[in-house]
Amino acid sequence: MTVFLDALRYLAYILIFPGFIFCFLTGMLLCGIDRKLVARMQKRVGPPILQPFYDFFKLFGKETIVPAQANRTVFLLAPLVGLAAQVVLQLFIPVFSFSAFSGVADIIVVLYLLLIPALSVILGAASSGSPYAGVGLSREMVTILAVELPLVLVLLAVAKTVGNAMGTGLCFSLSRIVEYQVANGSLITKLSMLPAVAAMLLIIPGETGSHPFDAAEAETEICEGMLAEYSGAPLAVYKLSHSVKLLTMTSLFTALFLGGACRWVEKLLLGIYPAMAAGIAIVVEIIILFLICAVLVAVCVSLIHAVTARLRIEQLFKYYWTVVTGLAAVSVVLAWYGL
Amino acid sequence: MNHYPILAIMAYFLCAFLIVVFGKNRAVRNILGFIGTAAPLCLLIMLAEPVLFNGAIISYWMGNRAPVGGYAIGIALEVDALGLFFGLLIATAVFVAMIYSFSYMSHDDNEPQYYTLFLMLCGGVMGLVLSGDLFNMFIMVEILTFAAVALTAFRNKVFGALEAAFKYLVVGCIGSTCILAGTIMLYAQAHTLNFAQLAAFLPGNLNTATIIAYALLFIGFCTKAFLVPFHPLAADAHGAAPAPVSVLISGVLTKSGLYGIIRLTYILFRTMGLGTVQFWLVFLGSVSMFLCVTMALAQHDFKRLLAFHSISQIGYVLTAAGLATALGVSSGLYHAMNHTLFKGLLFLCAGAVLHETGTTDLGKLGGLSKKMPVTTVLFLIGAFSISGIPPFNGFASKWLIYQATYQKAVESGNIGFLLVTVVCLVTSTLTLASFVKVTQSVFFGQLPKEYENVKEVPFGMRLGMGILAFLCIVTGLFPGLVQRFLTGPASNAVFHANSYIDAMMGFGYAEKFGLADTLPVSFESVGVWSPISWLCLLLIMLFAITIVALTSKRDRISAADKKAQAANAVSGPSFLDGAPAANKYELFFGGEESTYSQVGGDDLFWGFKHNWRHYFSFMHDLHSGIVNDYSLWAVVALALAMLYAMIIL
Question: Are A105 and A173 in contact (CB under 8 A)?
């Protein structure tokens, strides 16, 4: 009976929260907020916030065309694998004190799982046989290379700081990192983490491929690059995993640096409704998570999008490997010497 | 059971000679080849239970010349968990390469000679890892070097084959000479060549002569493992050699070099406690890792690219082994095993492409996934493994290596090791980048006209690749079991040199020399990785999404539309029509000159390479391809190693 209940619980995690349905709704909403904000910043009216949902269902009704040059299986399977991996990744990122699968979460695993959605887009694009997709994937790969180095440094800085504080020297477990913050306050308040926070804020638009780091998808130049040959349902799935990526990156930021943001929630609720504190706390925490994610999207995706022009791919690479890496490296050195 | 090691070595050599005599007939030849590789594999698997699981150490004295009065005179074989671990890797890779060879080499002339050399090489490597005697080891090094040189030049009609073999011969001989010189110096000092006796004698007698011998032996084994600065040889040799030989050179021969280095530093000299030695190994490993992965990014030949990656991965192993922690050594050995599996698989895939299309030039190939679906899937498994994509085996071992380097950084308080972690992680991403390039250039993208009649490779070749792909997945899914039954015992053996000495020379021999096993063995890792649960999650998710996708999808394409599409597919204009046929990467942007397009020439990662252009042009000038230069590098490396050895002292 307990096995059955456990299975049911995990199924609920996978399908509802923090799995598929949660990802679908919040990701799409974040995407809508982003589009609306960018439009308002550029003095346009902009689409309604629910526009990504409309687009998604509209695309599902459209015809799916597989190019004659394409390898059909890979072309159609790649978006699905990408979305699945993206949602699985979301399952590993703790939501404040709640984590669905705590045992398997580890920052290096997360680092690699972040690669899989990008890789599946790349493989799908490669299999389409289109030259535009070829250019797109080449740029996407360079973007991945560019972002990887600072991201690694940021993660190491966090691991070292938490490890120092816990006395173990190193701590790779994401849920442990969050637990530490719940007990001792968010890492963003530490001086040594500030450069890493700045670096991570710059990594988010790079990972999600938004302006000015969207050389790989440049619509006006290479027809959305890797998505050039996609249409109908597979395109809808790609758009969905792109929106989920917004959620993943922002909630990863929250887990790394703002893990203690909800410390007061449970205490407060215990005072008011002790019987249902845990149940209500999670709802409140989800709402807070969503708000934080929305603010992060507004700051590091929409705002940067609205005020910058697209970088060329080699400028992008240079930027990440000098400025952002430099910021992250400062943080690592500071964390290393325990500041 | 004590006879199994010698029987395993003899099986290779015996079948090699029998093929010379009876090899004219294909059936006889193939049967002999099969027995010659399958029998040692079976013998070693039978040894796994006592040696790996129960921790026994098997020693065998040829002609029963056991040591007299604490002095070993006879030739000895000694199989501990480390030797057996490498032996198993080698036997497996060799067995698969042999199966693959049956179909792959069937169109070549001089097949009997090929199988003879092949088995000689296998016997040489097997003899090397099971040997308990330094001079015996040198003889095996000679056998395997010359067999490898001859096999490199086997297809001597191929452009560059003789040149590659000549380069390999020259620098390989420098390496062998170093090993011989080191052996002589040790013999002069210790009056023995037996490993166990040397291991008892050397740690207490580190003087100028023995440490110079250490440097000589080290450089000798570096040439066998193709570590920097010997990496250009590997690229040339792999480019010219038949694919199964590439498997031997990258999966088997480099392992013999690694085995030599580990045996030398951990057991014979026991210098791993010294920070200077750790720095040496880690530095060499990191440089090999990073330099070769960037070299690989610049390649446009499938097999040369794989060759550079091969050394890059060896760099990982050396880095991990150089950390001198239990986690480091076991993760290094794990990666060594994975390297044999995935690199063997990738070379066999390259061979399959060469077999069907006649070229390995990335600029000319394309779109083969429709013609060779099985090879494509197997290649992708190999590519994911080497790039460390979960849940394949490369991820499991690299992940342990990152942890090991980070743990070392924290324990030693040295921020330099943190840099090594970062280099490891970045190298891994660069590896992924270059495999994206291969995937895009060979298996996806546009199918050139001349390859329209390409077919899937024969069953024998698919079987060989399939075995390795299967092993890649299995070792990736069960890292706990691998750690417990294979790499754990092997790294245990590395840290217990005393039991190695006692098994050979009689109990209590090591203690007489006042040696103690100093390094503690613990496999504490800082994180948990359970691929099974992750895979279950991914599958459930994929299943759910697929169901949603299938139920909501309506097929709106009518039969007439399909016909029209099919007609279009045949007669419709292709992107390649009417464009100059020079190089497919120059055709982006409607056939603009490559100078105006962002993807110039065969250079898929322009954005990366542009920023590193000075580095790449420096590397381009450095790798002149002239054997004199490479010999000079070898001599310089030797001189530096000797100088550094004096510092160790």
Answer: yes
Per-domain residue ranges for chain B?
4-511+523-535+621-648
Q: Which two tokens stand for residue B339?
A: 């390297």
- B residues 345..404 contacting A (CB < 8 A): 367, 369-370, 373, 376, 380, 388-390, 395, 399, 402-403
Residues B475/A159, Cβ–Cβ less than 8 Å = no
Quick one: average pLDDT of B263-285?
83
Q: With a threshold of 0.80, does the pTM exceed it?
A: yes
Question: In what helix (H) or strand (E) does residue B637 lie, and over which residues does it extend?
Answer: helix B627-648
- Residue B369 vs residue A254, higher pLDDT: A254
Torsion (CA) A165, A166, A168, A173 in degrees, nearest 10? -110
The per-residue pLDDT for A105 is: 55
What ipTM does the predicted assembly reach? 0.83
C-beta atoms of A318 and B611 within 8 A:
yes
Question: Which residues in chain A have Cβ-Cβ distances shorter than 8 Å to B437?
Answer: 141
Structural domain including A151 reads: 2-336
The dihedrals phi and psi of A144, each to the nearest 5 degrees, come to: -60, -45
For an interface test with B, the pick among A58, A87, A108 (most B C-beta atoms closer than 10 Å) comes out as: A108
Q: What DSSP assignment string belongs to A252-273?
A: HHHHHH-TTTTHHHHHHHHHH-
Any long-range contacts for A7-15 (C-beta under 8 Å, 24+ apart)? A10/A100, A11/B540, A13/A91, A13/A100, A13/A101, A14/A91, A14/B537, A14/B540, A14/B541, A14/B544, A15/B544
Least confident of A299-303, B400-404, B607-611, B638-642: B607-611
Residue-wise pLDDT tens digits, B527-582: 556 666 667 767 776 776 666 666 555 444 444 445 544 544 444 344 444 334 44
- Cα Rg of chain B, angstroms: 25
How far does Cα A322 stand from its chain's mean position? 23
The overall average pLDDT reported for chain B is 80
CA distance A172 to B206: 40
